[in-house]
Amino acid sequence: MNRPLKRSNAPIFWGLFGAGGMLSALLGPVLVLITGLAVPMGLLFGADAMSYANMLAFAQHWLGKAFLFAIVSLFLWHAGHRIFHSLHDVGIHAGPGAKAVCYGGALLGTVIAALSLLSMGF
Amino acid sequence: MAEKTITIKVLRYNPEQDQAPVFQAYQVPFSDDMSVLQALLFIKDELDETLSFRWSCRMAICGSCGMMINGNPKLSCKTFLRDIYPETVRVEALNHFPIERDLVVVMDDFIDKLERIQPYIIPAAPRSLAQGEYLQTPAQLEKYEQFSSCINCLLCYAACPQYGLNPEFIGPGALALLHRYNADSRDGASAQRMELVAAEEGVFNCTAVGYCSEVCPKHVDPANAVNQNKTTAAGNYFMSFLKPRGTSK
Amino acid sequence: MSKRRPYVRPMAGWWRKNPFFIEYMIHEGTALFVAAYALVLLAGLVCLALGEAAWNGWLGAMKHPLVILFHLVTLAMIAYHSWTWFKIMPKTMPPVVIGGKRLSAAMITGGGLAAVALASLLALGLFWGMTR
């Protein structure tokens, strides 16, 4: 049988999925612990650990900018790709609609993150 | 003393009579050393000669007697009643394949896929008789040896939901065999096979469920073969942008 | 005429029929929490860009008991993602041969989890140093 083969463009999404999966596996728990629990509950760190001045300075440094951009966008690409496959798993056809929502959402988040970070200047 | 018996529920399907498969229960004498295959043979010989199933070697090397036993893909010759008794044994045709009749599945799709992966050594530069044999070091053997243990029993296909959801997917077993030849130092055809690996039918259908490797009766790790090929296919994909070589075949 | 009429069984509910698949769906489901947390951070970034008042609004929202509860659940789910990510690693990565011996599955998973511990300590230390 010689059906014509079409090259899959999955490596792009799979690569972003893998990078985001690795980053969230390594840093996800500790980031949630810091930003979602310790700081809001006033534990471990000073009361104004995430003050406007502190965080703006962090986000204006090129390294901080790169870190925040990588975290937000790669987490979204990781999750988008996984959710895309999970929709297929539960029988929701992985057509253009599902693709637009999962990957489009990640792309939109990436653009918003980039614009926000750029608007804060260096 | 009354003889011990065990209940075997078999999913029956007769395409000439049945709209859909139904379970039928049989009482089979139980002994400690009986396999599920022996119980089916007892049914066929003594209780119901219409029961259809495939088997041959009775020693886990022919790969014919794969079936779902209490919901898991198993070789029936390698699964013993003593490990299930006194529970009921539930036997069904291998998941994700069309049922031809009773426990017999249609495996044409797998045979087609097996052909497509070119499961034989294609030397980069064939050696003449005068040049002698192909030599291989133990380290080179190690690279593909486990993948060469595959007996085409299809348990990994029955374990793979992605194959069940999309039968276009080449699937764990054939991809493990593909990798077995790619990883062989005597073979030079990985570039040819890449077209299939990287295609929409290829490795990227896998979501690393990993159950294929759990159920393999020969300890092959198809999940690893598939995922190693994701890495090479992704590398190949991105490299193809760096050095355009005209249109692909 | 052929009497063949192969019967194709439906796939509906496949993942409920085997504990292995239930676990798979749970670890795939961690993606919902990764996405939700990324959106929380994204909202924070937007607020930070909008100015001090917006940022303080975001900080205040983070203190809401329900948001704290959400982060507790998210912490558990993302930690589960970390565990399953490295548990499947031996199957998803190419074999690593060190000194002629293939690195065992337990070593790969253990190494990954050690990396999580190290990265976490490093992040805590850096954050503490930067905000002191």
Strand content of chain B: 5-15%
- Looking at the structure, the CATH topology of chain A is 3 helical TM bundles of succinate and fumarate reductases
**Radius of gyration over C-alpha positions of chain A, nearest whole angstrom:** 18 Å
Q: Biggest sheet of chain A: strands, sense, closure? A: none
Specify the CATH architecture of chain A: Up-down Bundle
- Gyration radius from CA atoms of chain B, angstroms: 21 Å
Total E-strand runs of chain A: 0
Biggest protein-protein contact in the assembly: A-C, 54 and 52 residues
Query: Which descriptor suits the 3D outline of chain A?
Result: elongated
The CATH architecture term of the largest domain in chain B is: Orthogonal Bundle
Question: Distance N terminus to C terminus of chain B?
Answer: 72 Å
**Class based on secondary structure composition and strand pairing of chain A:** mainly alpha
How much beta of chain A, percentage-wise?
under 5%
Order of helices and strands of chain A: HHHH
Query: What number of structural domains do the residues of chain A give?
Result: 1
Task: Estimate percent helicity of chain B.
Answer: 25-40%
- Helix count of chain A equals 4
Number of strands of chain B: 7
Largest sheet of chain B: 5 strands, mixed
Q: What would you say this structure looks like, in words?
A:
The complex is a heterotrimer of chains A (122), B (249) and C (132). With 122 residues, chain A is an all-alpha fold. Chain A has helices at 10-38, 52-60, 62-89, 96-119. Chain A has one domain (14-119): Up-down Bundle (3 helical TM bundles of succinate and fumarate reductases). The model of chain A has no long low-confidence stretch (mean pLDDT 93). With 249 residues, chain B is α+β, with helices and mostly antiparallel strands. Chain B folds into 2 domains: 5-105, Ubiquitin-like (UB roll) (Roll); 108-242, Fumarate Reductase Iron-sulfur Protein, Chain B, domain 2, CATH 1.10.1060.10. In chain B, the strands form 2 sheets. Chain B has a 5-stranded mixed β-sheet. A two-stranded antiparallel sheet of chain B has the order 6-7. In chain B, strand 3 (66-69) and strand 4 (72-75) form a beta hairpin. Chain C has 132 residues and is mainly alpha-helical. Chain C has a single domain (15-131), classed as Fumarate reductase/succinate dehydrogenase, transmembrane subunit (3 helical TM bundles of succinate and fumarate reductases, Up-down Bundle). Helix content of chain C is 73%, strand content 3%. Chain C contains 4 helices and 2 strands, in the order H-H-H-E-E-H. A two-stranded antiparallel sheet of chain C has the order 1-2. In chain C, helix 1 packs antiparallel against helix 2, helix 1 (19-50) packs across helix 3 and helix 3 (65-92) runs antiparallel to helix 4 (105-131). In chain C, 28% of the residues are buried. The chains are: A mainly alpha (122), B alpha+beta (249), C mainly alpha (132). At the A-C interface, helix 1, helix 2, helix 3 and helix 4 of A face helix 1, helix 2, helix 3 and helix 4 of C.
